[in-house]
Amino acid sequence: MKVRRLVPFLFAAAIPVSAQLYSFDPTGSTETYAESINPSGAITGCYYDANAVLHGFVRDAQGNITSFDPTGSTGTNAYSINAGGAIAGVYEDAAYMVHGFVRDAQGNIASFDPTGSTGTFAQSINASGAIAGWYYDAHAEPHGFVRDAQGNIASFDPARSTATYAYGVNASGAITGFYEDAIGQHGFVRDPQGNIASFDPAGSTATYAYGINASGAITGFYEDAIGQHGFVRDPQANINSFAPPGSTGTSAGSINASGAITGSYTDATGVTHGFAGRVPNTIDISKYTGAVSETVWQNAQQAGVANVIVQAWGGGSQNSLAEAQLLGAQSSGLNTGAYILLSYFSKDSAAYQVGKAIDAIGSAITDLKFIALDVEICCGEFTSWRASTSYAKNSVIMDPANHIQEVTTAGTSGPTAPAWNDKGGTTADGTVVWQDTGAVVINQADRIARISAAVSAIQAYGLPHGVVIYTDGPNKNWQTITGNCGTSSANNCSSLIALPLWDVEPKAFYGGDGLLHCGDGIAGLVPFTPYSSNTWQARSGNQYDFGLYNPADSIVAPSWDEYELGLAPAAKRACSGETNLFGLPASSTLDLDYFDPTLFQ
Fold first, then answer.
1. What is the pLDDT of residue 550?
2. 192-197 long-range contacts, Cβ below 8 Å, gap at least 24?
3. Quick check: pTM over 0.90?
């Protein structure tokens, strides 16, 4: 069996557009192949020398390159490097036998083979030193194996397998790969206890799983009657198909802890490209998204989106495009929901706001799956006045009597709070002039009652999955609006926290474009830490990406995103919503989410 550089289907290194690129080669290399990089930046792979002999190499974070070969090797290929610098791979000896090897961070190399192996292919090594791969037996039939850090090797095969190929092992020891049976190829995941589950995306005629992350999310690709598609399978076993726009064939090879996937795709001209990205299964849109064409819906479906949630009421106004947006999504075969951003002014009852939202949804309610109540600060409520602060015109705050005051003359507030005019008049404050808007925020008990009344009003419409709460749990918005309702018997709302949670996690993460985004960046519903013993224990949806974390959009006056991100006003950055996705005009924005698919069934 001749060792060559193995290319299992299509793997691609994906580099953010803003990244600084550089090249390197070991001394004497005529061809260099970098296969794996660890968290500290150490890289391993292989290279051919002038005699066409294959050698392994490791390049440290400072750029120093070390070439290596196991004793007796006539060809070495290193495939995987873990956080500690240990490397796993394969080599061939003079008898053309292929063996697995592990090289520790000090350069010591140990060769290994499962019992009965006539060819061993080590593919992945995790942080604890466990190695996964496959080997051929005396009948040239491949079997999966896992080798622990002590050198103990266990062979395994899914039921009815005639050929097993293990490609990835995560930190907990879960392994993924694919196997063949009398029908075709199927993906599998083997848990640390040795239990094996087989899986296939809907419509698959052949499934190939390659990468598994720390949470247990798996990526790979599958073939169906149409072509080849990427997929991601979350830890709850929900499978989402995807393809970059313009792809005629997609292959995904790796998924990291935050759900970012790398791979390659082929376009209509036959050119192969690398890609990096994450795969949410839902988009949520508002009136700011504008009209959405059929092409945009088709592009979204091709990228793995199956669900659309449309804002129907925005705290003080309807989305006049909601019905058309929902009907367009529905006619394109997408599942739909809607959401209502509640305000807490005394003049706007729950029944009034829900009624306005239902009017905006119109005839699309027939195929609507649920309505989410958006419980967050939206319209100037709960924003406190600040001393000696620059305020722009139209900035708003809530005064101590819960009246909303709006700036009519821009300037700088005084060193102490003014005596507020709560009778519809103006208040002088340093060089700022404030106008009492007449809007009054209701008290905490009434706010909880309003949310409950809105839930009841929505439930009366008999939607398949009723009501979902969108908020950030007992943190910032939920805390400010409800006083962490649900966390004590003194402030109880057990019926609210029993509803499905569409969760906001206020984080910043790097997207596949190399830029900072707002959201949790997780394509799946884990990791999720329950908020407390008395409140939400699980979530049904998460806010995956709600826009760029933009240093150019500094805002002095506090607003909702200060609460969302927990940022000081001077350092605050706006989250603008994603643009230019799925062929939308540059002025359009949308958010990306991940949902439990059963909510849309």
1. 65
2. 194/154, 194/156, 196/156, 196/158, 196/159, 197/237
3. no
What is the rounded distance in angstroms from the CA atom of residue 165 to the CA atom of residue 183?
16
Q: What is the pLDDT of residue 556?
A: 34
Cα distance between residue 513 and residue 275, in whole Å = 10
Q: Quick one: CA torsion of 282, 287, 288, 294, rounded to 10 degrees?
A: 60
- Give the tens place of pLDDT for each residue, 55-78: 999 998 888 999 999 999 999 999
Sign of CA dihedral 350, 352, 355, 359: negative
Q: Which domains does the chain have, with CATH numbers?
A: 1-156 (2.130.10.120), 282-379+444-552+574-600 (3.20.20.80), 390-440 (no CATH)
**Contact call for residues 317 and 355 (beta carbons, < 8 A):** no
Q: How far apart are CA 499 and CA 420, in angstroms?
A: 40
Q: How far apart are CA 109 and CA 464, in angstroms?
A: 59
Q: Taking the CB of residue 583, how many other CB atoms lie within 10 A of it?
A: 15
CA 455 to chain centre: 28
The rounded distance, in Å, linking the Cα atoms of 98 and 113 is: 9
What's the CA gap between 185 and 178, in Å, rounded? 7
Determine phi and psi for 197, rounding to 5 degrees: -115, 130
Contact 304, 242 (CB under 8 A): yes
Half-sphere exposure of residue 564, counting CA atoms within 13 Å on the CB side?
26
Q: What are the φ/ψ torsions at residue 421 (nearest 5 degrees)?
A: -85, 110
**pLDDT, tens digit, for every residue of 78-90?**
999 999 999 999 9
Q: Give how far the C-alpha of residue 134 lies from the chain's centroid of Cα atoms, to the nearest Å.
A: 30
User: Which three-class secondary structure state does DSSP give residue 1?
Assistant: coil
Unique residue bearing structure tokens 């061993």: 120
Alpha-carbon distances of 156 from 62, 177, 196, 287, rounded to whole Å: 39, 12, 9, 54
End-to-end CA distance of the chain: 50
Residue 527: asked if its preceding bond is cis (omega within 30°), the reply is: yes
pLDDT at position 17, please?
30
| Identity of the amino acid at 399 | D
Mark the ranges of the chain whose per-residue pLDDT is less than 50: 1-21, 553-573
Please give the helix or strand (H or E) that residue 132 lies within, else none.
strand 131-136
Q: Which amino acid is at 88?
A: A
Q: Given the DSSP bridges, would you call strands 335-341 and 307-314 parallel, antiparallel or unpaired?
A: parallel
CB 45 within 8 A of CB 32: yes
Q: CA–CA separation, 298 vs 505, rounded Å? A: 29
Helix (H) or strand (E) holding 563: helix 560-565
